[in-house]
Amino acid sequence: MSLIYQHPALTRPDSFRVLRLLPAKHLSDPLCCQLTEEFLLPDAEDGKVVPYEALSYVWGAKTPEDAYISCGEGSLGLQITRNCEAALRRLRLPSDERVLWVDAICIDQTDAGRLERNEQVAMMGPIYSLAADVLVWLGEGNKSTAVVFQYLAIYMLVVLDSDDIKQALMQEFDSTMHMNEAIRKAFGEYILSNIWFDRVWTIQEQVLARSATVVCGGDSIPWPVLDKFVEYYTMMRFESKHEHDGKKRTITKESFKATRRSFLVGSARNTSWNHTPAEDILWSATQHDATDPRDKIYGVYALLQHFGYDYPPPDYSKDVAQIYAETVVTTMQQQRSLQILELLYSSKPAFGLPSWVPDWTRGVSFGQVSLPPSVFARDMGERRATGGSRIEGEEVPQCLPGNRLRLRGQPFDVVKLCSAPFPIYEAATMGWKARERWLDADPDARFSYFQYRASVLETYHAWTSMLREHLRSLPDGQDIAPHIRVFGQLHLAPFRMAGRSPEAVEGLKVFAEGPGKIFEIFIILMMTIDLSIESGEGIGDNEAPPTDPILRAFDMSEPRWRDLWSDVYGRLAMRMEVLDFPDDMVSTIAEVKKIQYYLQDSLAGAVCFITREGCYGTVRSSAKVGDHVVLFEGADSPMVIQPVSGAGSVSQFRLVGPAHVEGIMLGEAWLDDPACLETYELV
């Protein structure tokens, strides 16, 4: 292609271009198109926008081998990625032109077109919602995806039929589905794991579509059929009673991602529902990828508009920190709430972000919130530390020069004792079978994993040592049982903060509140055990390996395994052997040994602290002794903040993050008195 096409300037604020894809008889024929200007507010007598379809796809990285599409006479063309080229070749008709909107072609992507890009990104909501159909392109596919789409075509007959026939067909379909492992695997591996589901731009493109079709190579299926099948697939992937082939199923992160989109689609199209909170939309951006970090916000701008939120329009001349800070403050001001701060997890934000601005690029990692904030708040209703307060009057949060945020809050307490963060091990998120295969295949990985398991016990021992230090400071004769009980309850707080389901929380409560109160046993055990290596003690070279199935993986033929056994596991196991538990609690000991699995899930990344007034809390960041615990007006959780040296007339702090503090999560400490509020400045 000898000459590069230059986009003519658009003539009106409501202008946008469409691509008229010219027909071709063969898939390999050169791509040719014409770009024409259209209007969202047409002047034509019928008042209708020209019918067009919008393409939703993943650009893919640009390479020297990228393709070109001819855009008129004189060999004028535009460079397009190979994925875009493949989509256009498949969508091209044999004898008629096809009118499409394709962002990479219809918007001037050059530096000279930056202003146009800002304006067109702001118009993406109506562009996608007015399209006759949104074409979701998943790539060329393969033989496996072709089989999946054939299967989906059968499923479409099931879901679209009458109720009586549907029930009969569904029974037959269930039987087939359970037997066909290849279909299940291909659907998860090639459809739900497709990169299209990972990109932030595709959220609004699909949610705002009035009609959508999924296209993969030469196959296609209406989006509602895929949506229904995802729901069915997700149900089948749960561990359930339906074990027709004897295999337990676990839900995948891909099916979770797809079902979260279904939630947003339902919110967008069901006018009887309350509008979706802005925090939920912005949270969804943390779950998806974007090449340009600014698109973590701009990629859902149209969705925010759709639900009636007024955010600053896209402006690619701004830096990431300014865009993210404006987004946080605008959300606080419009929602009269600080719930957006619940997204805050990164202790080392990038792009020069202030401490109070979430880093949308980091996503949500293991142990953090995996539910939209509104669903999380609804299901985990124990977080009303300020009594459900909202920001009142004219005292709305303000972003001051230098990205300083001024808020009002009620001081609560100061951190007296503080632990190290609980260890995080990403491989701990693997399913049981996947983890077993991985550990069996790699001896070094197995040892690394058990080192992590040892660090879990060591860290928790440090936590309980901190508790022991606090208990020693209590007046003589004071009953310590209530303190141990509250400390045990604290374990449930990070579990709730991790966004687990209420059912899962109830399961964990068995350890804290069930027969024997296992957490209390474990706390006492860890407070009294010595996990350090002492001279002359430990496991001998010829000693038999442990009988506990969790510990049997220790390879006693290697010194490193013997040392690890002597250091932590052996001392814990031996301590259990010599403890004089009552007979009715013997069965409890096996459960105690399993607690570390729950700890590594629920406490990953958490810091435990005790305040000067003896309150127990956790926060998912690096807290320090001397940090302040504050109840900010409009926040659901207490916030831990860190004093900044050299502050001016108004005290400045760094926001550590939302916390759980036992005994004040239902508003017990909230005075609801404006006179008790102080001004804080976060940097």
Automatic annotation (TrEMBL):
One Pfam family per UniProt: Het-6_barrel
Residue span, Heterokaryon incompatibility domain: 52-205
PANTHER family (alphabetical): ANKYRIN REPEAT DOMAIN-CONTAINING PROTEIN 39 HOMOLOG-RELATED (PTHR24148), HETEROKARYON INCOMPATIBILITY DOMAIN-CONTAINING PROTEIN (PTHR24148:SF64)
Record protein name field: Heterokaryon incompatibility protein-domain-containing protein
The species this protein was found in: Podospora appendiculata
